[in-house]
Design brief:
Among the domains are: 57 residues, 2-Layer Sandwich (Uridine Diphospho-n-acetylenolpyruvylglucosamine Reductase, domain 2), CATH 3.30.43.10; 108 residues, CO dehydrogenase flavoprotein, C-terminal domain (Enolase-like, domain 1, 2-Layer Sandwich). It contains twelve helices and twelve strands. Helix 10 runs antiparallel to helix 11 and helix 11 runs antiparallel to helix 12. It is 31% helix and 20% strand.
């Protein structure tokens, strides 16, 4: 049985109190739903002596729709609520779908949107028990000096595996972040670093307060496709979010963003360029879908950093891009079957 190590649990009631506690305790970590960090603590991947719980912090829960079409989602809003909120489903279908495919129902009832955005990178060589990792000689991400993914590699390539990240990128989400120095707003694309050990431009005393979604036009369509071995629980072996903004039947704007490839989610700009200006009611749509899928295959290079044969995962890239593009246009919901 894996047991949690001893730790102190602090329960602030305000954002100001929470960030002050993070600043005061050098190795403190935030616990939101606890579905990730508590497992990592049992595996001794993370070993904080102090956890700062956000459960009782006022103002971090819930979805708020603004008169101008913006939607603000508190960082502590449960993934289950994000997945089922009708305002999000209408205006940001890819995000609702991505949230609906995270883990399983019980974990979505506990896990939060903020926690998923800030999910630690994952690798099949690190997300194991301490005993297993010790027998292997550890790795670059924790306690070791060797990368087991890239022979001779000097940089950790653990993969970003958060389903909601590409969906949020596709709609230009912004993050509201608090610290003892005040509050700042960060476009989500600017959050990531290409570093598997710590892939966020976020200081240890900073706290994600809310995710802000800009308005989407009337012709907005979106979908999320998730490759996984089982129908639930699994992290993505590949995930792709699609955005299509239509004017009539013509694509005025497109975005594709992918995850579970490298330490940061990837925006597939060259794929989006193929789609803009295409009439979806003509044969040009099928041609563009095929071209987009092949371009994604060229851009996406899965590595043996997460479970699942990486060559098979790469061959599934064009399959999932095609399926997700068509699901977005038809508004048929998420794609999650092999």
């Amino acid at each position: 049985m894996l047991r949690l190590p001893k730790f102190a649990l602090l329960e602030p009631r305000t954002v100001s109190e929470a960030v002050q506690l993070l600043a005061q305790h050098a190795d403190a970590r935030v616990v939101a739903g606890g579905t990730d960090i508590l497992v990592n603590m049992k595996h001794e991947i993370e070993t904080p002596s102090t956890l700062v719980s956000l459960e009782r912090v006022a103002g971090l829960h819930g979805v708020r729709a603004m008169a101008d079409g913006r939607i603000t989602i508190g960082a502590m809003t449960r993934l289950a609520e994000v997945a089922t909120d009708e305002r999000i489903r209408r205006a940001h279908p890819a995000l609702a779908q991505a949230a609906s495919l995270v883990a399983g129902p019980q974990l979505r009832d506990m896990g939060t949107l903020g926690g998923n955005v800030l999910l630690d990178t994952r690798c099949q060589w690190i997300n194991q028990s301490f005993f297993w990792r010790q027998a292997l000689g550890f790795c670059l991400k924790k306690d070791g000096t060797k990368c087991h993914v890239v022979e001779g590699g000097s940089k950790c390539v653990a993969a970003a595996s958060n389903d909601t990240a590409p969906a949020l990128m596709s709609v230009d989400a912004q993050l509201r972040i608090a610290s003892p120095r005040g509050e700042r707003v960060l476009p989500i694309d600017e959050l990531w670093l290409a570093d598997g050990i710590y892939n966020k431009k976020l200081e240890r005393d900073e706290l994600l307060v809310a995710i802000e979604l800009p308005p989407t036009p009337a012709g907005h369509r979106g979908a999320y496709g998730k490759l996984r071995e089982r129908g639930s629980i699994d992290f993505p072996l590949y995930g792709v979010a699609v955005r299509l903004d239509l004017q009539g039947t013509t694509i005025a704007r497109a975005d594709l963003c992918a995850v579970a490839l490298q330490a940061r989610p990837l925006r597939l700009s060259k794929c989006a360029e193929i789609l803009v200006g295409v009439d979806t009611a003509s044969s040009a749509w099928d041609t563009a879908v095929d071209a987009c899928a092949q371009t994604a295959w060229k851009l996406c290079h899965p590595m043996p950093n997460i479970p699942g044969d990486h060559e098979w995962r790469r061959e599934m890239v064009p399959v999932y891009v095609k399926r997700t593009l068509r699901a977005a246009l038809a508004a048929t919901g998420p794609v999650h079957h092999v």
